[in-house]
Structure formats: C-alpha cells, structure tokens
Specification:
This protein is an alpha/beta fold. The chain is built from 5 helices and 13 strands. It has a single domain, classed as Glutaconate Coenzyme A-transferase. Helix 2 (86-94) runs parallel beside helix 3 (131-137).
Amino acid sequence: MTPLSRDDIARRVASALPLGAVVNLGIGLPGLVSRYVEAAQDIVLHSENGIINFAASPDGGTADHDSIDASKRPVTVLPGGSYLDVALSFGLMRGGHLDVAVLGAFEVSARGDLANWWTGQPGDVPGVGGAMDLACGAKSIWVMMEHTTRDGLPKLVDRCSYPLTAPAVVDRIFTDLAVLDVTPEGLCVRELVAGLKPDELQARTATRLIFSDTSRIDARALDRRAR
C-alpha cells in the first residue's frame, strides 16, 4: 500500500469540486488544489487574503510575488478576477457566498468538529485568523490532510483534544489514505487507497469507521487526469 502524495490528494479534491462552485482554499495543503482545477469545471477560487478567481501560476513561468494566495504561493488572477480589501474578502466568507471551503486540520472528530488553529505546544503562537469565519460561513467544509501525524498518531478522533475552530462543521475529509463523509452515524469511508485493508485504516483512526459502498482510489488514474 502506498499512501497518496500531497499532490494526489489535491487532485482528488479538485476532481470532486462541484461545477461552477465558488471555493476557498485555506492555508497550507489546500493551496495545492489550485494546480489541478480544470477550466471546464468553471470553478471560482477565493483566497482570504483578498483574491477571487485565480489559478496557480504555471511551473517555469515568471511569478508575480505581489499576487499570492493565503499560503504565499504565487497565483495568476484570471479574466474577471479581482483583488479585494479585507472587509470585502471576509464579507464573502461570512455572508454565505462560498460553496466550499477546503481547509487543513490538526484533528477532526467523529461529529465533524474542526480543530485547525492551535495545538497548544510550546512555541506555538495561537491565532485563529480567518479559519473560524470560513468554518461558519461556507456552505460546505472539506478537510484535506494526512491521516496521521508524523509520529503516527490518529488525526481522526472521537473527540478533539485541541481547541476547536468550530463544532460540527466538517462535511467531507480527504486524506492520504481515504475519503470520508461525516454522517449522523459517524465517519463513513467512501474511498480507500488501493492496497489498504479496512481494518488497517481503522487501526490508524481513533474513532469507529463505517464501511459502506467503499470504492478504491486509483492514484494512477489521478495522475492521468492531471496530464
């Protein structure tokens, strides 16, 4: 079993975005999604630092470092796109104008609680930023992350141990091992990476998983889609 790469997770998220959606990409891993959104999807990307309707800057191109996303990656503003001041950008976030927000997380609970702003570790500087605005303002919250920490500890848990960004807001979770939906019954595994057995995924998860109509993620197919 080979876990998905970060770019493979980004490809999987991009392929699942609804046609014509307005989508916020959060700081860190979610920013990679802009590389794999296709023009035919008619997606409008938003970044909380004040850009709407952008795409990732092409590899090898001349980067404009005055035009960056929330992760400080250079991006290209598309025709019809705009730079926004903070008030307008956060107004879009708080006003229910975003169809999907793709966010990173330290932990997600079985009921969809989101913890993504502070671990409480020595040296960490607490600062929730726009995460709480996105978590409460977007119509749907998707989390994109590795399934476990670098030390192998589960990030999907019964109850979050870190301070919450917002309770019961996450709808779908994309990890390097699986795609899961948050349901009233718990976390339902919709897709599982090829070569990984259900009991192996359960062993890497600190809450009960539901396996119903689970399909397999084919990383090779994701690579073909990106070409």
